[in-house]
Amino acid sequence: MQFSSEKILIFTFKLLMYFGLCATMFMLQRSGFLHQYICDIIILLSYFVFATTLRKDTGLVYLTLIPWLMLAVFGAAVNYQSLYPIIIPFCILFVCLSLAIVISIKKQNVKVAMALTFISIVLIAVKNIYIAPMYYYDKGDMSIPQNANFIKDTQNFFYTTSSLDTLSLTKYNNKVLYIELWYSYCLPCIKKLPLIKKINEKYRDREDFVVIGIIDGKLDDIKSFKKMNIEYKDVFDVSLLANKELITKLHQKLGVSVYPIELIIDKSGKIISIHLGYQEPLTDYYYKKTTNTINALLNEK
């Protein structure tokens, strides 16, 4: 079979469009501009529309769906771990999608298409409600050094306050501390601030609980630190700036340097949990897990 140069050119153009759309969708989702649930809705609509379409030209089908398929496969590959829990429903999901495309080409069977769409809805619900929250939250949990007393070990770390004074965390001995390390142009950090504010408001009347925000002095200067302190004054009880030398020591101490970094410290000064990252769709799950930990520490005798 011979292909004309025109057909090859059209095929190449379509292929580039596929990759371009895939890259665009991936970047939009990763940057937070495209919600995962929107992706799911588009996939579901695509199932039904393309499984029942009377069009013989399937180019539009592939042009629309291939980027989503590639996005999911790429995401699964990047996040792969043994027994990766989200890939199982996704595999079934895309088997259904493949069947739907075959049906759209051959029979336009509405009943089968509706059945496949229903299966997809169930799988997406299971993924979004049960599997994804547990997986993505647990993925952010970091190992904690044994017998490490964070307050005692960092007693010589002096942070800068908004009034340009210096302060050590030893001031908050015998208190449960929620500490957030962040910087001003970190998108996940900014998106997490409403959650931190909600946590702070829950324990506003507790004198033995303090919410502290520490800004990375490598990435923000005094001017931006003061601006953030004013803009988000209701989020943190205390806002601090760690200079370049200090933030390097903190990263070495914690063994991580990816933001946002969440620390929960008990009244004796020991780190109870270190959590990295933030997924906005999982806010309720984050809130439940975090407040359960804080409640247990506050109720300790």
Summary tags:
2 domains
How would you sum up this structure, described in words?
With 301 residues, this protein is α/β, with parallel strands linked by helices. It folds into 2 domains: 5-140, no CATH class; 144-298, Glutaredoxin (3-Layer(aba) Sandwich). Helices cover 57% and strands 12% of the residues. It is built from 10 helices and 8 strands. The model is unreliable at 80-86 (pLDDT under 50).
Put the structure in a nutshell.
InterPro entries: Redoxin, Thioredoxin-like_sf, Thioredoxin_domain, Thioredoxin_ResA/DsbE_sf. This protein has helices at residues 5-31, 36-51, 59-78, 87-106, 110-140, 150-153, 187-202, 222-231, 244-254, 283-298; strands at 141-142, 159-160, 166-167, 176-182, 209-216, 238-242, 261-265, 271-276.
Anisotropy-based shape: elongated
Uncertain runs are: 80-86
Structural class assignment: alpha/beta
Q: Using only CA atoms, what is the Rg?
A: 25 Å
Look up the CATH topology of the largest domain. Answer: Glutaredoxin
- Reading off the top of the CATH hierarchy, the class of the largest domain is best stated as Alpha Beta
Proportion in helices: 55-70%
Major sheet description: 6 strands, mixed
Q: Quickly count the domains.
A: 2
Output the number of helix runs: 10
Strand order of the largest sheet: 1-8-7-4-5-6
Q: Could you name the CATH homologous superfamily of the largest domain?
A: Glutaredoxin
Strand fraction: 5-15%
